[in-house]
Amino acid sequence: MAYRARRVAPAVPRRAEDGRPLWRQRDFGFFWLAQTLSVLGDSFSLIALPLLVLQATGSVARMGLLTGAGGVAMVLAAVFAGVVVDRVDRRKLLIACDLVRMVLYGLVPVVWLAGPQLWLLYVVLPLCEAVGMLFAVGYVTVVRGLVGTGRLTEANGRLNATAAAAGVLGPLGAGLVAAWTGPADAVAVDAASYAVSAGCLLLVRVRERAGDEHPAKDTGLWRDLRTGIAYLVHRPVLRSLTGLLAVFSFLSLGINDLIIYHLKRDLGHDDGTVGTVLAVGAVGTVAGALLVARLRRRLGFGPTWIGSIALCGVAFAGLGWVRPVPAVAVLGAVYLGCAGMAGTCSMSLRQEITPEHLLGRVTSAHWTLQYSLAPIGAAVLTWAAEQYGTGPVAAVAGACCALVGAAGLCTPIRRAGRT
């Protein structure tokens, strides 16, 4: 690889952890805003792209195929994302990722003016998912440099809470825009949000990385990936988390397509209702993000993570059977809230115990392994739903997700500490 280790610019001297409230810290504040806007855009495309496919084909299997294609690109990008993140200016990388996604998503409404072009979605979404993986790995590595190790769970919880608030407004707005002017216009809003996010990141000053005294060397892609995997394998808690999350992701990546199909085809509701239900469901993510730090302090990492995954499964199992729209929204809220808590716990633990100069590669290796089979799972889940109905498929997938949480009781996750 031709990448060389560099110091992050603009850099400010490393200093003791800032004791001020996070909302009063300038750099974290701009970073917080940028991440929230980025998620706002993501939540628009989360609704708009499946609606475009459903509008053109009427098939949940084709929706799942698009989700799977994006998942494959995400996994492939995860292979080398950590290598890139550990070697380049992380702030500039985040800005570049936002600008690339702005351009790619901006193509969709322009091309759609000439009529539906389904092939474009199968080009744009995988590319955006790959770039999004680079952004996600870079984002994880930057947070510790902004707030310090001791406040990671709090910072991640707050980032996830406001991101979830954007996730409430995004589906609601996307559903309304799609109902009024069409899903393609909702994708245009997504593109605009990335432009504003990039502008916010330009104002963030990132401290020098603690790992700069251990610069990444040009050791090669596969050796760097093996370095990240080896770190995960030799730490029992991280090893168990990665394995169980791989199964969970296989089972659940296609859940969004399943909910949309259930509302549109099984229950006969319009795009506005889809957006409203997913927006109400995202309120659960806000609640989970605000509660996760307190629950982890009180219960410990293990019980919080295991309980969250198990409750995800219970909610998932009921989603395909319930018919009242408020019930679908409530179960969606439970699922999203618990998934957010489990994800925040997992990410915070990796950030806390991984050396700075390895954080990108370990995060990349974790996500590569976690999502390696998820695209296949999304395709299988949506194909099965089209063949056998959303109710039975959701019940089986949800029960298996609950078993993933229960399996955590037999691993070192159960004994993880209370910090």
What does the secondary structure layout of this molecule look like, with pairings?
Layout: E1 11-12, H1 26-57, H2 60-85, H3 90-112, H4 118-147, H5 152-181, H6 183-201, E2 206-207, H7 221-233, H8 236-252, H9 255-266, H10 271-299, H11 301-319, H12 325-353, H13 359-371, H14 374-388, H15 390-407
Parallel strand pairs: 1-2
Helix pairs in contact: 1-2, 1-4, 1-5, 1-6, 1-9, 2-4, 2-7, 2-13, 2-14, 3-4, 3-6, 4-13, 5-6, 5-10, 5-12, 7-13, 8-13, 8-14, 8-15, 10-11, 10-12, 11-12, 11-15, 14-15
String of helices and strands: EHHHHHHEHHHHHHHHH
Mean pLDDT: 79
Number of domains as seen in the coordinates = 1
The proportion of residues forming helix, as a percent range, comes to over 70%
Beta content = under 5%
Please tell me the CATH architecture by its name.
Answer: Up-down Bundle
Radius of gyration: 20 Å
The profile of the biggest β sheet is: 2 strands, parallel
Looking at this structure, what is the CATH superfamily? MFS general substrate transporter like domains
CATH T-level topology? Growth Hormone, Chain: A
The CATH C-level class name: Mainly Alpha
Biggest sheet strand order reads 1-2
